[in-house]
Amino acid sequence: MALSVATARVDRRRPVLTERRREALVFLALVLPNLTLLAVWTYWPFLSSLYLSLTNWNLLRPTRQFVGLANYAAILSSSRFWQVVTNTVLYTAGTLFVRLALSLALAVLLNQSRLVLRALWRLVVFSPHITTSAAMALVWLSVYDPNHGPVEAVFSALGLTFPNVMASTTLALPALIVVGIWKGIGFSTVVFLAALQGVSKELREAAAVDGAGVWRSFWHVSLPAISPVTYFLLVTGVIDAFQTFDLVAVMTGGGPANATELYVFYLYQEAFHYYRVGYASAVAVLFLAVMVGFTWVQTRVARRWAHFGDAR
Amino acid sequence: MKPRRALAWIGLHGAVVLAAVAVGFPFFYMLTTSLKTIAEVYTVPLPWLPERPEWGNYVEAWTRVPFGRFTLNSVIYTGVLTLGEFTMGLTCGYAFARLRFPGRDRLFGLMLLTFMIPGVITLVPRFVLLKELGWINTYAGLIVPELSSIFSTFLLREHFRSLPQDVFDAARIDGAGHFRQMLQIALPMSIPIATTLILLGAVAHWNAYLWPLIVTNTQDMRTLPIGLQALKYKTGEIPQWNVVMAGATMVLLPLIAIFLAAQKKFVEGAVQGALKG
Description:
The structure holds two protein chains of two kinds.
Chain A (H helix, E strand, L loop, with lengths): L1 H7 L10 H34 L17 H7 L2 H32 L7 H9 L6 H11 L6 H8 L14 H27 L2 H9 L4 H12 L1 H16 L3 H6 L11 H10 L4 H34 L2
Helix pairs in contact in A: 2-14, 4-8, 4-11, 5-8, 8-11, 9-10, 11-14, 13-14
Chain B lengths: L2 H32 L3 H4 L14 H9 L2 H32 L5 H10 L9 H11 L5 H5 L7 H11 L3 H9 L4 H9 L4 H16 L3 H6 L8 H4 L13 H36 L1
Helix pairs in contact in B: 1-14, 3-14, 4-8, 4-11, 9-10, 11-14
């Protein structure tokens, strides 16, 4: 009110810093730094990647030429690329499904009212989530040591031999999967637990009144009730697993014989080891396409799931 | 207690304890190995506990590689980036929540789209840009590209929108401008969510591996997760696991301290993200 009196008294021919305009200026001042950073370091690189993927640029050579879709053709016909994709899909499936199953079971156990020291167990189970992957990867390397590690010690106490998993083309990826499960189980357990605790008591009591036993109550009441959360964990789990890098870089370097080479590590090698920047950009664009496609598919599936979740 | 109930109780706790031991074992192994002599590390059968705690491993981890320098780099990277990112989220979130601007919501929607761009596709062009700016292997190169914030902006905007209008009106009548309103009204009313964001951000940045690996190329600029790898070999071929474990423990120490002090925050952060999303 005081402001409108002031502006009314100002000569209308002079530019007036109205309250609206001042607010707009403040808005810009607050928003431009972040938007500028985004534009320069995220938007533009995204567009630049699309362009670079159409060139044959190698950082060791000063010139680059436009080669159209040649990179994509080379990638899609490279058997190494398909091995990387297979590895990544196997790794994702292996970590995700086992982890979610285990953490759901664990969450059910932790949800039992007769459990004591719940906070302690939750703390322990959650702790791998906050650790430095690159550091724990070293710990796991030592755990897997075939001659002097603890797993080997247990195996030989049982009269078995523990194979050198890190040097085995068949066992190395499963060994990484175990580490992946270990790292992520805390997050999904804690989330499942919160979801289970949120399943309304009325629902479960109604099921009990209807004569449903523990198992049926779980399968037909609790599980559908937490399906949005299960769905969320699945989606984020896939996106997460696809971007695994630290474990591969520290534990195996992609070996043995590319058996553990996962997608982002492959991209890293092409871009920063061989400096095949054009080729690597195409690899990145394909990755983006898969992620976007996956996100698109999941939003459509989500709509159908949500209906099932609501149906009583 | 009836025998069946007692059995169920034992079964439940047995299973849970087993799970906790399985998950916690790598930590136990890391700590005990960090205090063994190199001879004990390579003794067969493996001794589960060291005879005497070999604290010298920690000293060696600190001195054999420039561990202090790695720590400094990690502290600078984590500290500046976490605070900077939060500030971006604060200013941007507040502006989108409480200030009027033509096309504001469409602009916000556009910004949200960036959320869909996975970091992977920005790596190469960022590297090229850093090279042209001469920012490779510098703090600026490490920090500036990562400084922008979408997640914090999004969360803080939601939070600010939920704050009651009358508090701001009262402040405005008292003559407070927008900056004052943001810092003296909005921010103090956001301590819980701000704390969660800062904690989660700090942990994520402390643990970053791929990005610092790309930007830095000399040992004196490396951060801890990368520098730690250098502890594996001394001279000769056998891995120095005891020293490596000591180094790893030191890298995890700040995280464990924060985690123990604020565990509820981490759990809440994980849950809120999942249950809202």
